[in-house]
Structures
1.
Amino acid sequence: MQSFNTAQNALYYQHRNNIKNTSGGDGMSSTGKSQIIELKASDALINFDEYLSEIRTCLPSLNEDDTWIRSGIHIGEKYKKHISSFRLFGSQTPKIGRARIEVLLVKTQIGVSISDAAPHCADFIRDHLTRTGTDAAFVALVPSTGEGWHTFFVKSPLHDTVDIPEDILTHTCSGALKIHIKKACGLSDAALDGYFSFGYALFDDTVIKAKAKEIDKSLRYLKFCDIASGSGQMLHAMAGLVAKLRSGLNKYLCSHADRTEKNFTEQFLTGSLYASDYDAGALEILKTMLRMDTDKKIDDRRFVWGNILTEDLFEGMLFDVIATNPPHMKQDEFSFIKEKLESYASFSHNTDLYCYYTEKAFGLLTDGGGVGVLMSNRWMRSGYGVGLRHFLTQKNITEIVDYANIPPVKGISTPLSIVVGSNGAPSEDVSVTVVEDADHENISLYVEEQSEIQTISSLSDEGWIFDAEDTAVLMNKITDMGVPLEEYVEGHIYRGILTGLNEAFAPDRATAEKIIEKDPNSSKILRPFLSGRNVKRYAIPTVKKYLVFLPKGITDKMRGDLGPEEWLCSQYPAIAEHLAKFEEKASKRRDKGDYWWELRSCRYYGEFEKTKIICPTIVKHISATIDTKGLFSNDKTSIIASDDFYLLGLLNSNLMDFYMRRICTELLNEHYEVKPANLSVLPIKKISPTNSFHVNLKTEIENGAMKLSKLCSVHEKERTEDINEDIREAERVINRAVARLYRLSAGEISLIENY
């Protein structure tokens, strides 16, 4: 529909509120800006018949019986100075799935111009869409006189997305498309790389020239699918890439007037493209916007709403190329389909949704088809990623791009990765690029300059770490020098307590004191409760919250002949009163005991009451402290049942910080995530009592850790410069002793300190 040309008339209004992305696909998007597309403008009287005629080409199932007119109380006070009324001309909803797109007319107040009313109209419509659960709307803004009008297409803020840079999208598409063309046309990697460089690289194009018709045919009749299409960013990148590649063949083929990038794009959108999404609203918006981009008919049957992970949405169809940016969602957010995902190699109790999408993409490929997935990089080193890592070693993975801790897109919450591959024989080698320059302009050029070949056999299911040779050698050396921490402490490493509802079960100090004031008996079940951010290396933690400690089974064990709620109210009336406000939310927890006020079952609650080492989960540097007061801690901590100051000193050393950075999931801003599974593999040097050299080093580390536990427990505001210098010196002593214990060379020490 050329009269609504979104490519040339897209206007973006900065969204004023941060709203979580709930659409499928575009998984990196967490907050962003709402797209408002200006369609047409005129100074003449609006012709409603003509306007609706244009709308019908975008909304072929428009229900024009769905109408109303609203004014007065239906217009918020902040908009009444500019808007007098608004009217619904019709709406479209799909046959299956919940979605709605409206056609609206907004009239200004007398004397208010369109230019003055436009920004207020945009906010008004967004508020209307959010309030009514409508996905998008065509809007005609007209003045009270009826002379002049502007038309817009507005998406609900609930469909806000972050724009992924074009070079990242195109690179993801290119890798997958190269695999298909290579198989279909028998091209070499060198010829393909030259062809895809669009003139950036000099290459012998003899093969491309000879195979031009064959290549063009493979692109013309390509079957492409984005299995998590979202706002359509990936499929638009693929459309542009295919059009550009076909246009690049014109110099080898007979000249035809219709061999234009515009026509190639339309052929792709109408002949090659398939898409699916679990969000019916996102899919309806996508189809509507595609209809605004082309005069050709968009076939609804190629856009399928549903859950691609559990349903055969395309009835057995396979695709030549799949490129996608799947949604990110923790498993507790899609637990209703958990049982249906157990057949996936990626399945575990906490696997993120994008892992399943990646695996599914390979399952929908034709022989010789290629897949490109843009997703978080956490699968590489996280515990939940072990299934996907193993799955990928069974595939022909040709390329991995790891953005490490570089955030390439403002507004995303995790570093990215790109995986490209096919269902061919498992790879022996893979091209790996670790992106360390946040200012690079084009990822394809960066990959060309910085990629290295890594053997698949060198990658462990336990975590994929892409190291330089000297770093890999040092990691192996450190590993060989000790035994896993899990073995050293005989398996006594545990995650902190997950309440499932901290606002109810982890009240702050002031609330806890009020509860105890009302009923002193409450103190028996209110335990000091630490969060990860309260735990600093060596220091006595500051308690800011308390845990309502009613573990699974305590009610039935203690209530005797009383009813469960009767026992709670009579035994702990102030606690019962506090928890009553949260009954509905607490009842919905998956992790609860026999009753809604109980915590989940946990076999190691008793360990919290003992002396132990506590480690926070989210850190810039590995941190550990010894707790002798029986404090409880939340799920953003790990505890180690040990009072070993030698172990405490090791955990806080530079060497262990270096090791942890190589095996833990990297987060933004140089933080990383330390989970019990990561701690369990730390190589701890066991000390033989007959080796006096090692015994002396152990004593140095123990004494240093004891000294630091006293020094660091002085509040930071009360520390003198002498105390700070004593802290620094004690840490230097420990690091020197650890280096000698693990027999590090001067070069290895330098590598650790400067990593």
2.
Amino acid sequence: MKVRALVLFLATFFCVHLMYDWWWRPRFQVYIGEENGWLDGPWLSFIIVLIISVFITLTLIQLKRRRFNLYFIYVSYSLYFVTMIFFLFFKSVGSYGYYIGITILIDELKEGKIVEALFNILYFVPLGMLLTRLKRSVFFLVSLLGLFLIEISQYSLELGYFDTNDILLNFIGLYLGRFLWLQLNNEIELYR
């Protein structure tokens, strides 16, 4: 089992490293700014890739066993919320505006910017998993109201754009997370 876990980790590390260099780091620098040259340092890149690889490896092992450690879940969600706050409120400080309508999303998908759309969906899946105890109607109301408030906050505090496409894509992510957890809930055991 240890050899399999090591092989899984090495394969995950390799894939995450490729994704990091190809996709994530260039976009992260856009959010932070080019003046922060420390982002190009090899140690920061290595640490980020290592943390993501360990997280993915542990998640896959626990999924295969159908048992999740509660401490792992607490740590994972803590890191998730810290990064979510960063991406929601600190990635575009000083730039603001609004995009209303779905035509911008369609244009972006035609231009090949599907990765950003997928990120907007996938990043809200874990939050959707947390909201499964809500009744369906309450889930819809809380989700849409929360997403609307996030977008209004970004615009009014000059921390980003009010974008109806973000509301749509983030809601799809929330609903997908809720759906996945409701499907997996009976098959996964939580333990300390």
3.
Amino acid sequence: MSLAPMRPYQKKSVNEALACLMRKRSPINVVPTRGGKTRIAAHVIGQVTGRAGWNVGAFVHRVELLKQASLALSREDIPHGAIMPGHTITSHKVHVASIDTVLARLSSGCSDTARWLLSLDMAWLDEAHHAVAGKWLRLAEAMAKALLFGSTATPFRSDGQGLGDVFHEAVRGPSMRELIQAGYLADFAVLAPPTRIDLSTVKTRGGDFAQEELQALLDNPDFIRAPLRAYGRFAQGESCVVFCAGVAHAEATAEAFRAAGWRAVSIDGNTPAAQRAAALDGLADGSVQVVTSCDLISEGTDLPEVGCAILARPTKSTQLFMQQAGRPLTPHTDKGRALIIDLVRNVAAHGMIDADRPWTLDGGVKGLERQVPGTIRCPTCWRVIGSAEAGELCPSCGTKYPARTAIITPGDRNAFASVGRLAIDDIHRLPLVKVLEHVTSRQHIATIAKIKGISDKAWIERTAKDRRVG
């Protein structure tokens, strides 16, 4: 199979990651959803094994991701073994490994697994925003000498925990909008037809809506048919994924599509692997038109044939929102603009998927990733765009937007001083890292925290210390 040449930003990420690793620093590569992070990782792995003779473990947390990582290595002609149920350690310098299989064998006292982990010079962690979670930290502790190399499209966590506890440096790729403009990602439109859901009584658990309560709320005939109505009106016949709140919700939604005559299947973590693969292959060959899912195809799944994503699961996690909304953005020869249909106001809560989001490897800052411009929805055609790009008329149907309330009230404007040359609007608009370049006092940092909605006082003190301002 002939591969397309590496893209310029991919080459840059490879070189920067290798430079970090050669300095014995652990980097994390941040590339937007569908930007080719696994191919970047495969090139880095090929370089450190081919030139330096390193032993490498490539760790993933789902079988589908393991197969994708293995395919990426094979395409780069990198020999490797696999560690998963039914597969054991080989003589290869590279192994793609299921973290759950590795930890289960380690817990059972498997000496071969313990020795292999101790032999690793580098560990690649896919979906590296998980790296500070419990089982990933246990894995890191078992690898005494391994440097870490992480890849993610979403370098932030809803709990505010920083990835700097695991990674030393960030290798930043281009923005999503830059990839769209270069033709590497499909452009998209967002529609948000109104639905009747009240989330005010749903509790929060683990930083997101409690799944049992959410599923119970959405398990009603009217909402179950909402994705069907939206699909029939806006995306009829398109290959489509519907993200649901739970297994029962996904199954009921698929049944509603089938009853209306569409070829629809539901998959989840308990669906046999062959059945899951058949469903996704069906989207490619047209035998399946709609796949409904609970989380299974949120992270890392390559779906080039999907033209539409329907968001039917409310979430407080910007990370989950971006993973789900980004699924249809892979360009395809027969696909024009991808369509994201938001039935649960996720875009209103988290901003446009292509917004430049501030982030930091430091911990203790919750909600930083949501410090982006707001959105506006057309009351006629339900098209949603970023408020910063909105004129007086909807770009789709020409409807005049109703009068909008400014994000910052006049009282807010009087309360805040500027920061250096930056006005209040600049502080709202620019990424945090750019704003911080202008601080010359602790008061500047406190002002930025107030405008950006950062309530963590310890962050102000840490930042003032890092910037050496008083």
4.
Amino acid sequence: MGAKYQIAAVHAAPIYMDKEATTEKIIYLIEKAAQDSIDFLAFSEAFLPGYPYFVHIFAPVQLFQAVAAYGNESVTADGPEINRIRTACENHQVAISLGFSERISGGTALFNSQIFIDSRGSVLGVHRKLQPTLGERIVWAQGGGKSLRAFSSSDGYVIGGLLCSENSMNGARQALLEDGEQIHVGAWPALSAIVAHAETVDLQTEALTKGHAVGGQVFTIAVSDFVDDRCLDWITENLGHSDQLIAGGGWSAIVHPNATYLAGPHTGPTETFVQCEIDLSHISICKVLTDAVGHYKRPEVLRISR
């Protein structure tokens, strides 16, 4: 028998552009997860302090003040906000992955990051997005290969993750698999709330989620926030009205290594835990057919170097 865990994707909106209030909400959601007997909780891309949707709908020359404000609401990986979240994980015995806008200590450079914290409150590691996408490059720097890894958790599994379109980077996904990844967190913003992406992006997210689950023989979480009125109001007050971003959006689900849905998909502006039980013994069964890091690897032909 394999180890079994209750896992969940947090389909929710942050308290947009308010790091303190969003930290409080994260702690509340961790407490609620414990009440629901959830072992592992996944948050969306840049949940703290919220995803900078404005970079995709306004010209760069209009964004100086907004980007500066975003930097002020970003947090350091060892700062008080993350430390409070770590304490909540320890107190409630819930492990998490959290997308956050990381500001380097003593500086202003920002990274689009994903922190992994176990149920003891220990930081397993921080992944920095390798390649910010389109307008994100106005806000975030490129991450380095050192942070591209999966982490062995004291809770008994190997966890890894990628942010948004990183999930289309075949080399990055293979690198995590070669670290023994068993649970993968694909963290996303609510791209379907951006009018230009509305017709296709959820289909793309679904395809990438199922592709990694089947191709890597791993349980795969896709987790997104949604756009709420607070987010729209902040953008309107600071940059002006745009009809290119609407309320709602998002796509959250959990997929088995055989491509079936274990939970979700859930879309739209309703806050919920997309939750299920997983059994890690199913991974070895799926690897009988194809094993991305074993009998189906062909290392003499295809290699990853880091």
